[in-house]
């Protein structure tokens, strides 16, 4: 069995070791975030959980830090604040695990729907998604809706695709 060479920049879980501004160890200008990044902090000595919210927060701070680096200003260290987790576990059922309360069932499912609708960027998309979810709920349909239309020929490229 072949053993992988241990590098100072690869963790035991095959994630890239990064510092507090998401720069890969032993690199000049390589940054990693999200699931691939292994960042140890006092609150997370075994690295951050592999969650979308961690990656989103790392990306926002990394963007600011890259601007700061470009302008020769000080950077800010990343620290994840866990706001909780939610998951649907079936029809009309979910679990909500917040720092101050934990609950499950139908009410948790309603909270899950509300939070996910609020995270969608604009009102038009919220309404469309709400209607799609309501339709799927009442018709008990799990099929994805597809919109198929014939494309006009693009004369510039000689293709039928836009």
Q: Can you tell me about this structure?
A:
The structure is a single chain. Helix content is 31%, strand content 12%. The chain has three helices and five strands. The protein has helices at residues 52-70, 106-119, 123-139, and strands at residues 16-17, 37-38, 85-90, 93-97, 102-105. The strands form two sheets. Strands 3-4-5 form a three-stranded antiparallel β-sheet, covered by helices on one side. Strands 1-2 form a two-stranded parallel ribbon. A hairpin with a 4-residue loop joins strand 4 (93-97) and strand 5 (102-105). 12% of the residues are buried.
Considering the chains and any ligands shown, give keywords for the structure.
5 strands; alpha+beta; three-stranded antiparallel sheet; 162 residues; FAD/NAD(P)-binding domain; elongated; 2 domains; two-stranded parallel sheet
Which percent band covers the strand fraction? 5-15%
H/E series: EEHEEEHH
CATH topology of the largest domain: FAD/NAD(P)-binding domain
- Give me the CATH superfamily of the largest domain: FAD/NAD(P)-binding domain
Q: What is the β-strand count? A: 5
Q: What strand line-up does the widest sheet have? A: 3-4-5
Give a quick precis of the structure.
This protein is an alpha+beta fold. 31% of the residues lie in helices and 12% in strands. The longest helix has 19 residues, at 52-70.
